[in-house]
Here is the input.
Amino acid sequence: MTQRFRLPTGGRIDRARPLAFTFDGMRYEGYAGDTLASALLANGVHMVARSFKYHRPRGIYTAGVEEPNALVQLGSGARSEPNVRATTQELFDGLVAESQNRSPSLRYDVGGVNDALSRFLPAGFYYKTFMWPPSPRWWLRYEHAIRRMAGMGRVSSEPDPDTYEHQYAHCDVLVVGAGPAGLAAAREAASSGASVIVCDEQPPSIDEAIENVTILSRTTVFGIYDGMMASALERLTDHLATGPARLPRQRVWKIRAREIVLATGAIERGIAYANNDLPGTMLAGAARTYLERYGVAPGTRAVVFTNNDTTDATVDALYNAGAQIAAVVDARESCVIVAAHGRRRVRGVDLGISGGRRTTRIECDLVCVSGGWSPAVHLYSQARGVLRYDERLAAFIPDRCPLPIRAVGAAAGDIDVGRLVPTWSVPSSNGKRFVDLQNDVTADDIELAAREGYTSVEHLKRYTTLGMGTDQGKTSNVIGLALLAQAIDRPIPDVGTTTFRPPYAPITLGAIAGAEQGPHLAPTRRTAMHDWHAAQGARFVTAGLWLRPHSYPRAGESEDDAANREARNARSNVGVVDVSTLGKIELAGRDAAAFLDRVYVNTFHTLSVGRCRYGVMLRDDGMVMDDGTVTRLSESHFLVTTTTVNAVRVMQHFEYLLQVVWPDLEVHTTSVTEQWAAAAIAGPRARDVVARLVDIDVSNDAFPFLAFARCHVGSLPARLFRISYSGELAYELHVPSDRGMAMWEAIVNAGTPFGLMPYGTEAMSTLRIEKGHIVVGPEADGRTTADDLGLRKLVSSRKWCIGKPMLDRAALKETGRWQLVGLTALDGEKMPRAAKIVADPERPAPNPMLGHVTSWCYSPNLGKWIALALVADGRARYGETLWAMSPLAGARVRVQVGPAVFFDPEGARLRC
Here is the structure.
């Protein structure tokens, strides 16, 4: 899609570096130096969000951190981040963003019915509604509805793969803001010999080096605390597709300074008139920014609505860009916009005289509004600075502070607005007049709050949610308190302001935690056999909270060579692997079988005592959640195994269902993961080893595939399962954890004559990929269904289970879904890491992505590189040749698509 609204020249962008990105699945292009917002505007995308309460169409309103509307879900999977401001997110190649707070799509949002019902949803409606009927049962229903409505974005449930760090610094002078006033203050301080740190939230724009001055770009000071300590968030790699491995994503600076200079600028305000929230409505200063900084025309026919002189520069910029100026509406001359018109974008406005009834319609596709400017006093107020109301600006400005903190430039009120006539709203009955765009707070809501006695500005905030969004009311608070002052007939200074608290702008939880995560946050678990693994030279990796052997390298042997040796031996002789870390949950009770039928896609009430069955469970949305085995120990007693990383999650899922959803079921659950040490013995000689260990008949007739029995290993009571993760003839032995080492040593001793070798997680992964076994993680990444993974036959047609109704959604049945397949590298090439699948590697960007590799390895048993992948219409592509390519690694390999099972596709080896 061409950038239809990009100006032919101008802007601080690099037109030689085009960048591709997607928004709501559509591909667009921008340039290096763009923000996501400017790139969307360049492509003619104005509607980018739905409002929180009424789900009204919303567009880009500002060009900075104060943006209330353009909040997007950035990225996917573990790096998916909600509520990212499109106005501050720098564009990078491959950026993926989605709109939020809408269903099923941005254009057609069923939540829009809230707008039609808005007369029943005034400010404070929830306080009144949920007081009746006075019954806990009714409240639980309300709570469910409220929780479904709460929030605007989706937080990833996957572990954050990025790292964060904290840094400490000291200086004589900290300057916040690198505009003209901030740099002047920094130079003045540095010339006296003081050490200076300058923090600026914009990308680097200063080429010169200033002696004694350290400039931290992309750094937002979000709080000032006791002891003259300022906290700042530095975004190190958020502007990159993938950051260098050596760099953390973000860094929190804790800076102690002798003096702080605030050059934080000022924030433009809007004016509340009917339908002032339509996409295409923008602050005048923001429109000028898009024109001059990004070379983007936000509209072709503009109306400028103002009450001050600062919009003259915007009018000039629009004219110079070739836009038509339909009208300049000056409230100082009693001329106002009464209402805007349009559906998903402004198409015209009604002009009138203040207090008059007659209006004139003017067509336009852009409305630039300026109701004046408010100094950004947030940090000053956090430092216990006192504010005073300035009549000239109609805004609060810094007055005095008990600490050595001073504001300069626009932050101090040094703003040339010319003649300004305070204009907060325009009376109208033609539509809603929005004050807080993010929380859908209208001028009528503020009047209602005043009538109902909420005359304190702090009460107003909580009753209406004014200023409680991610923007913290930066464009709306002053308007709201001014309207409150009008409603209660008191001077604005008497009404005052709400309390400014950190953070000034949202920060990630990962940045707050810093390095206090991973092994530094939680205890490390070791299995009962850990000391034996360590003595054998095992190289350990972390799986969940557990340390597991990756491989057992011998002298002069690499880890990969060791893993390949172990995988070969498991297929040719016999191997043993420590599987104590697998989640183990016991369920007991009259309704245990019925409960499992509801949780898993397949049926378990028909499972015989002493038998095992593989099972898959779904999330509520139909996506695969976890897999594992279920063993019936007795008529009302089951053992469920889960993946290592999902052991706690599945246990919590079970407990939630039994306590909240189905409290009537008689089922008791107990996590026994730590109570049992477990070992899997796999390979053609596995039966020979097990026969020497246990006191029961393990022949194929007596103990077939998926059988279970209690037995003894010597004098140790044990549980024996005939289940296979490797695809080989295999058994699992479970003994109480305190006897785990004795069991392991007995296995090793019994298996030595048959060539037994221990193997680690890497060989286990290789065996898994060779067999195409599905394990929750790369393949079941939260976006795949049972059918996507080739497990549709497991879904019982005779019963209901969690997530099953969602499988009938049209989107989950349509062609083009990514399906699990196997890939074989051709031409003897190595499979690239984290490769995407394309049809033509020579095609320039954007190159359509057909899928991606999920798991890959060199198969020592097949002598070639293989991989599992999710590919569009994958099962229909068997035999087709595609390309796996990694732009980051600069690698590409020709691959052949086939079934996901590479080794022993009939499964004869595990049933022999």
